[in-house]
Amino acid sequence: MTPLDYEYLRKLLKERSGLDLSPDKQYLVESRLIPLARKVGLTGITELVQKMKAGSEALTSEVVEAMTTNETFFFRDKVPFDHLRETMLPALLQARASRRSLRIWCAASSTGQEPYSIAMCLKELGAALAGWRVEIIGTDLSQAVLEKSRAGIFSQFEVQRGLPIQMLVKHFTQIGELWQLNPDIRAMVQYRQLNLLHDFAQLGTFDVIFCRNVLIYFDQDTKAGIFERLAKMVEPDGFMVLGAAESVVGISDAFRPFPERRGLYRPNATRGARPGAAMPQALRSVASAAR
Ligand SMILES: C[S@@+](CC[C@H](N)C(=O)[O-])C[C@H]1O[C@@H](n2cnc3c(N)ncnc32)[C@H](O)[C@@H]1O
Q1: Using the 8-state DSSP alphabet, how is residue 125 labeled?
Q2: What confidence tens digit (pLDDT) does each residue in 217-238 have?
Q3: Nearest residue CA, atom 16 of ligand 1?
């Protein structure tokens, strides 16, 4: 790969997926794209870049997908799912008692372990959610991971990472060396392709948004823009969950950290308020009399 090839790929990936590669990540590009080049019958990255420049959109999409990192596992990091069970769901069950609906979005759902972990948590609530309309939507840029998610089939290795054995026994069926999630859990999650760089307002509003371990690949401006748009999609009393290495602090004030719950945020209600709107009535009168 020539330095010009690398610059072309860096720029393209930033535009297409938000991936912000530093100048020293050639090895990463080579390790992902040389196998892809060979698979499609090309000699290497230089030829791959030439084909992309010639306008092969299908190849460009394959390159963007090949450069995504899809690492995930069931109940990843545990803590967010404790927050879901102990903080978010109790608050929302109470707040939505008359409406009886719950919408949860997993905004970079990879191969499905995260939305299915959420679905299993909700299933545990049993009768408490009887008669509720519950929607869990998993979205990702990559079509390949969405196809795997929809099938709900996981290897022995994948079900051994993070999934409690009781949940494996309860919610999966063994098919040879693989494990398939049972239809009731699979039916709780709908999957759609969605690029976080594009408009996502059409998804509507949510009570909870999980947006974990994807923003780490983006630069500050891209993160800030996404936080801004996510904040418009979370109900004022809803929640956003970030990954263990992610935070809004120093990037955006669209969300505020939920006290004593690492990785948990709420939309910032005080933000954008008219000057003086948060002031007590008595002080407001004094202020306006002084003007
Ligand atoms: C490391 S995985 C995180 C999966 C899961 N959220 C978790 O924490 O286990 C990151 C996912 O983000 C997706 N992704 C990368 N860029 C994206 C973009 N611009 N829009 C939507 N998804 C993207 C990748 O395809 C990948 O599946």
Answers
A1: T
A2: 999 999 999 999 999 999 999 9
A3: 17
